Amino acid sequence: MRSSLKVASIFGIEVRIHLTFLLFLVWIWFINYQLGGFTGAIQGVLFILGLFACVLLHEFGHAFAARGFGIHTPDITLLPIGGVARLDRIPEKPWQELVVAIAGPLVNVVIVAVLILVMHTGGALDQVEDLESPTIGFLDKMVYVNKMLILFNLIPAFPMDGGRILRALLAMAMPYSRATQIAAWIGQGLAVVFAIFGILFNPWLIFIAYFIFVGARQEAAMVRARGVR
Ligand code: ZN
To answer: Which residues form the catalytic set?
Structure first.
C-alpha cells in the first residue's frame, strides 16, 4: 500500500488512506454538488466519512482481536471498496481465526445497537434509495449502512469475513488446506450466482462477483504457497 498517506497512528496501528479514496471523495463531492449544491456536497461527503469511520472501527475490531492472540497489525488502509487491516500473520488455531474474523462485524453490531438503543435512531430508513434522501437524518443512515456492512461481510466467501468464518469452522473438523479449498469453492460458486443475478438485475453484483472470485483464488493460492496444514 505504498500509494497511501498515513493520517494517524492509533494504539500503535497506522491508519492510512489510499490515494484512490481521496479521488473517490472528490468524485462524491462533485456528484452531490450537481444534485444539491454546496449543502448537498457537504452532506454527501459527511455521509461517506461517517460510513468509512464505521469501516475503520470494524477493522480495529479485527486488529484488537488479533492483538489478543499476540498478532500485531502494522496498518489499516482505507480504500473506496472498504478497509484492509494488514495482520502480521493469520492466527494458527481455527478458533482464533474465528474470533478475529467475527470481531469486525461484531463492531458494526455494537454500533447499530448503540444508535438504536441509546440514540433512539434507525427507524426512518428501510431501502437503499433512501440513503440519498436529504430529509433522512445522518444517524438513521448510519444504522442502515452498518446493517449492510454486517450482511455484506457475512457473505461466506473470501475475501469477506464470512469466508474466513466458514474456513475456520471447517478447519475445526479437517486440515487447514482442505478447509481453505472447500471455502474457496463455496465462494466461487457464490460468485457465479452473483454474476448471473448481476447480469439479470444489477450490474453492481457483477463487480462483487469478480471481487469474490479473485479473493477465493488468492486465498487458496496463499495457503498452498505457505504450505500450512
Ligand atoms: Zn472485516
So the answer is: 59
212 vs 127 pLDDT, higher one: 212
Contact (Cβ atoms closer than 8 angstroms) between residue 100 and residue 73 = no
Q: Residue 11 falls within a domain, yes or no?
A: no
What single string gives the DSSP state of each residue in 17-80?
Answer: EEHHHHHHHHHHHHHHHHHHHHHHHHHHHHHHHHHHHHHHHHHHHHHHHHHHTT----EEEEET
**Domain tally for the chain?**
1
Distance from the alpha carbon of residue 33 to the mean position of ligand 1, in angstroms:
31
Q: Is residue 223 situated within a structural domain?
A: yes
Task: State the DSSP code for 133.
Answer: -
Alpha carbon 160 to its chain's center: 7
Q: What is the DSSP string of 2-15?
A: TTEEEEEEETTEEE
User: What is the extent of the structural domain holding 191?
Assistant: 155-229
User: In angstroms, what is the span from residue 138 Cα to ligand 1's centroid?
Assistant: 23
Dihedral angle over CA of 61, 171, 82, 123, nearest 10:
-70
CA 161–ligand 1 middle distance (angstroms):
5
Alpha carbon of residue 90 to chain centroid: 17
pTM value is 0.86
DSSP of 82-108: EEEEE-SS--SSHHHHHHHHHHHHHHH
- Has residue 3 been placed in a domain? no
pLDDT digits 0-9 by tens, 135-172: 778 888 899 999 999 998 999 988 889 999 999 999 99
- Grid cell in block for residue 173: 473438523
Tell me if 198 is assigned to some domain: yes
* C-alpha–C-alpha distance, residues 33 and 75, integer Å: 33
